[in-house]
Amino acid sequence: MLMGIGYRMSGRLTRAHRELNRVVSIAPDSSEAAVATQLLSD
């Protein structure tokens, strides 16, 4: 999750999406996945 946020903040959106999607795939029902999904939709 933090790697995805870091990549997003640095403008590396492809890498950010990859990391955030990984969070969702590993723990789809977690609060982290909910945050990752929200970040992916922005």
Structural features, described:
- The protein is elongated.
- Helix 1 runs antiparallel to helix 2 and helix 2 (13-26) packs antiparallel against helix 3.
- It has 3 helices and no strands.
- It has helices at residues 2-9, 13-26, 31-41.
- The longest helix is centred in the middle third of the chain and has 14 residues, at 13-26.
What's the structural blueprint in terms of helices and strands?
Elements: H1 2-9, H2 13-26, H3 31-41
Helix pairs in contact: 1-2, 2-3
Question: What descriptive keywords fit this protein?
Answer:
42 residues; 79% helix
Average pLDDT: 97
Helical proportion, percent range: over 70%
**Tally of DSSP β-strands:** 0
* Radius of gyration computed on alpha carbons: 9 Å
N-to-C order of helices and strands: HHH
Helix count equals: 3
SS strand fraction: under 5%
Low-confidence stretches: none
Based on secondary structure, the structural category is mainly alpha
- Largest beta-sheet characterization: none
Shape: elongated
Q: What is the rounded distance between the termini?
A: 15 Å
Short note summarizing the structure:
By secondary structure, this protein is mostly helical.
